[in-house]
Amino acid sequence: DGSGVMSEVKIPEGYKQTEVGVIPEDWRVSNIKNISLLPTQNGLFYEPQRKGKGVPLINVSDMYKSAPINVSLLELFDATSNEISVFKVNSGDLFFTRSSIVPSGIAFCNIFESKRNDVVFDSHLIRVQPNNNLIDSRYLYLNCISQHARTALISEAKTATMTTIDQAAINRCPVLIPPRKEQTAIATTLSDVDNLIQSLEKLIAKKEAIKTGTMQQLLTGKTRLPEFATREDGSVKGFKQTELGRIPKDWDVDFIKNVLKITTGDKNTQDKIDTGKYPFFVRSKTIERINTYSFDGEAVLTAGDGVGTGKIYHYINGKFDYHQRVYLMYGFGDKLDGYYFYLYFSNNFYDRIMSMTAKSSVDSVRREMIADMQITIPSKPEQTAIATILSDMDAEIQALQQRLGKTKDIKQGMMQQLLTGKVRLLDSSAKSDTQTLASK
């Protein structure tokens, strides 16, 4: 009779089974309609001829730019005073997209948290106005982007040429309601993680900018590292004019064909093997796998045509194979540091190739184009020093990016745990410690 099956699923003490899964006993399941102050509402009809002046308007595209919605990015719309009174947005309002090309994108949710009181919204959005006596709007937003809400909304969507959703379906969206204090604690905790993510993103952008600036300076010799800037007698080394512009007097200029070897592979895209032992450099920016290697050592690669034409895309040291339309540059010898060449080449090559070809876009790069490109050559020790500084900066940026990725993963896990009550932030009862343990 099936009742035996139910009894096998052991529900931890302090929890209960509901239609959206196991939740704490002191939480309840409601829906958007029951926690709304006013009925859900579609926005105003957007007429393109009225854009460009007036009040800020939230459009579908603004939903995807940042969360919460960024008011400074909104375009202006010449709304009438009646439209402003009917469609004026309040801090804490939630918005859902009404249509999507793919089902998984339906009812995309965002929150408005600005104090601006003259913002309106478009008819392709559905507005929810939470009742602040019942729910913390930041908590409600998190509920609406969490797994249980997304699953419910996607299952209610109608798919024809576009996937659409109506107000009634939004109204039925399940909302898990913890005690009010816990709602705020959950929203604040996740907001703190968001702030950490944003500060990491800003730090990465700043480090990237510093690296770019340092690279411009060091690769042109405008800035010299102290140990290379002066002669033995302490006098500053001067500059000279060359075909490549003004460079330090003790640097050389030479053609690429004179300082390294250039060759192409003999493999084709069909030669790739998904489980291959070695990297296989093809014409796109992806790296496939292959079971052969025709090169073992230090090299720089660029695509001859296809995706990424003319853009250098790899510096590698090791065993690998490469496509017949990929150029391999190797044999750096006593004159060139491989990583210095990679940095120089990737920063100068594309613009030079563009100037060497009459076309506005490069369809293919010929071997002679690379061979006949000139390059500035500092002494090998200076190249190595430049390469070391820039690769250290790169390593630091990569470490920050990994940390950012991990923090984003942690946030996803925390959301799932906190928004279903598997992990509790507040002592809602004397049992809270055992409840937390029971969930692990």
Verbal overview:
- By secondary structure, the protein is α+β, with helices and mostly antiparallel strands.
- The protein contains 14 helices and 24 strands.
- The protein has helices at residues 3-8, 32-35, 60-63, 81-87, 137-145, 147-156, 167-171, 180-220, 226-229, 256-259, 338-356, 367-371, 380-418, 432-438; strands spanning 15-18, 21-24, 28-31, 36-42, 51-58, 75-77, 94-97, 99-100, 109-111, 120-121, 125-130, 158-159, 163-164, 174-177, 239-242, 245-248, 252-255, 261-264, 278-281, 287-290, 295-303, 312-322, 326-330, 374-377.
- The protein has a 6-stranded mixed beta sheet with strand order 18-23-21-22-19-20. A 4-stranded antiparallel beta sheet has the order 4-11-7-9. It has a 3-stranded mixed beta sheet with strand order 6-5-10.
- Strand 21 (295-303) and strand 22 form a beta hairpin.
- Helix 8 (180-220) runs antiparallel to helix 13.
- 29% of the residues are buried.
